[in-house]
Amino acid sequence: MAKKTKTTVESKLRALYDLQLIDSRIDEIVNVRGELPLEVEDLENEIAGLTTNSEKISAEIEENENQISEQKQIIENAKELLKKYDEKLKNVRNNREYNSIVKEQEYQDLESQLAEKKINELKARIEQKKEGLATITEKIDERNAHLKSKKSELDEILKETHKEEDLLQKKSAEFEKVIEENLILSYKRIRGSVKNGLAIVSVERGASGGSYFSIPPQVQLEIASRNKIITDEHSGRILVDSELAKEEQAKIQKLIGK
């Protein structure tokens, strides 16, 4: 990696402020998107969960329908056996044989009744599951429509800002490379500790931007001299004079075509 050339404090301040302007614009773009990416992700996860539930219920309905088919077959088998037993009764030779056949008939009757009962229970279960499935399907359709709307909204924003954000991200990386590592670390630390992400602010009307605490005239002169890096004692932000800020704002606006 090429060695960084020695730079003046002023050039460091300018580079840092340029980086701040670029990163602040990226923040604005991200804020425009707001919670949309998270909303889209949440909807996708919810739909996936509902779909899994729907598939599970459908499988249970299919299993219950198979069980009904099995019970119907039991009834058919019982009918066939009862016909055979009726024929056998015509040719019984003694009471013991008669009683044995009658018991078998009674058993097949009970099997049929039990199968009918199971079929009715399974049908009721299926109806209940179908009602639940209909509710879930309706919810999936509703969520899909909502997801489509949110995705369309997000895609429109991304379409409008994608090119600019790509340029800004590249420029942010470029500016980072020409700033000393310790300054970059300080910059990122301050950015991460303040709500609006402003690590470097200009002095406006004798006060620090972002905190609005008055800065003593002597300190204002030191800031305007650009001979050393001065931080706001209240917020910890790096301070630059308003003239430098205006010059860099114009420069960055021209750079990103704003």
Short description:
The chain is mainly α and 258 residues long. Helix content is 77%, strand content 5%. The chain has six helices and four strands.
Give a verbal description of the structure:
With 258 residues, the protein is mainly alpha-helical. The protein has 2 domains: 9-33 and 180-255, Orthogonal Bundle (Helix Hairpins); 36-160. It contains 6 helices and 4 strands; from the N terminus they run H-H-H-H-E-E-H-E-E-H. Strands 2-1-4-3 form a 4-stranded mixed beta sheet. A hairpin with a 2-residue loop joins strand 1 and strand 2. Helix 1 packs antiparallel against helix 3 (95-177) and helix 2 packs antiparallel against helix 3 (95-177). The longest helix is centred in the middle third of the chain and has 83 residues, at 95-177. The protein is rod-shaped and about 130 Å long. Mean pLDDT is 90; it is low at 1-5.
List key phrases describing it:
single chain, mainly alpha, Helix Hairpins, 2 domains, four-stranded mixed sheet, 77% helix
Question: Biggest sheet, open or closed, and with what strands and sense?
Answer: 4 strands, mixed
- Widest sheet: strand ordering: 2-1-4-3
What fraction, in percent, of the residue positions are helical?
A: over 70%
Total strands: the figure is 4
Helix-strand string: HHHHEEHEEH
Measured distance between first and last alpha carbons:
32 Å
Structural domains: how many: 2
* Mean pLDDT over all positions: 90
Would you tell me the structural class of the helices and strands? mainly alpha
Strand content: under 5%
Radius of gyration: 39 Å
Number of helices: 6
What is the multimeric organization of the chains shown? single chain
Low-confidence parts: 1-5
Global geometry: rod-shaped
